[in-house]
Every structure is written in C-alpha cells, then in structure tokens.
Amino acid sequence: MIELNRLTKRYGDTLAVDNLSFKIEPGHVTGFLGPNGAGKSTTMRLILGLDSATSGQALINGRRYTSLSRPMREVGALLDASAVHGGRRAYDHLLCLARTNDIGPTRVAEVLEQVGLAGVARKRVGGFSLGMKQRLGIAAALLGDPGTLMFDEPVNGLDPDGVRWIRDLMRSLAKEGRTILLSSHLMSEMALTAERIIILGRGKLIMEATVAELTERYPSLEDAYLALTASSVEYGAAR
What's the pTM value of the predicted model, to 2 decimals? Predict the structure, then answer.
C-alpha cells in the first residue's frame, strides 16, 4: 500500500504538490492521471525519497522509502527510461542494480526474458530505441520481485504491440496482489489499463474514483477528464 498524508512540496514560490492525501491499495492498477505539469512526477519522486517533502509524508506499507534496507525487494519504479549509461550492456546494467540489493544473476536473466530483451542482453544501451529503454526500465523495476510498483508514463516510445504488452503486464501484476501506480496524461490509456483513477491538477487532488464510477457520472472517460482537469485550471486562476 502507498499512503500519502497531507503531502506538500514547494520549490520557492511554486507549489508543486498541494496537501495530497490518498491511498493506493494492492490488488488493482491505479491510474495517476493529469496534464503535463500537474505534479504527478514530483509526487512519485517524493514517494521514493528522491525529493524531500516540504510537509506531510508518503509511506509504503507504513514506512518511508528511505528507511527500507533493501528497497528493490519492496518497491520497483520506472521514472525515466533514459536515465541509463549508454555505454553499459543491458545485462550489466541490471546486474549492477541487483548486487546493491543482494539479488542474484539468475533473476537478471529472468526479468530480461520477461520484458523481451533476452536477445539483446549483451548489447549496449546507447543503441537502444526509446521503447527498448522502457522495457529495460521495467526489467529494473521488477528485479527484486517487489510488492509495490510505480511507473511514470511507461508506454512512451512503445509500438502498439508493446503498449498491449504493458497493459497485460500491469493487470497480471495487480492480480498477484501487488500495488500498482501507473502515471499518464492520457485518459484513453488509463481507461484500458486501470481500475481506479486518481486525477491531479496543479498539484492538487481533483478526483479519486473507480473507472466504473466515472463512467456512470460522465458520458465518457474523456469527457470526465476534460471536465475535471478544466476545474483545476479554474482553481489555479482563483488562487
């Protein structure tokens, strides 16, 4: 479970995350939705301890990420698929990560096979397409077989087959009882993948609902997204 309690982040005069409180429960895919600049990536960085909160807290299974002794065994994350040294081979990149958390080379081979990169495991990452880097980032997130997984725009750069693969993977991981947080700015993608939706605008929580609840309330999920994100713009103007 991921739990946010009045989480706030300021950068100077800019309020990037505004008093967020919500829970991400295990057993289903939760879509984290909002336009570019809504604060999704900053929120995920706060959860992972990459940035310090101005106030409030983010907990994973009741603990701060920075307190975990072997974090990859509890939390897997993909925030930036391009954040890999281009001179490293895919296998070596994952093996270095694995060793930091006492994960053996057998698991490295398993996740490369799982994401469809076994055939290019000895190739340098600098020659990978963006889609291949996304798959490598997903492999890194899966290394420790964690119960909590966070993905920021994981379908970027993937071809249609890759997008379908991501959807199936997210659903299968959720069915195993894992906590899945999947960020996107595309309601159309969330509608095909997620069961629950959290919509963010200007760093503030706009709506938390199931896909079914949004469908009942609005003619379509796209209409729901447009209406709710428009309300965040009005909120920002009022402030």
Answer: 0.91
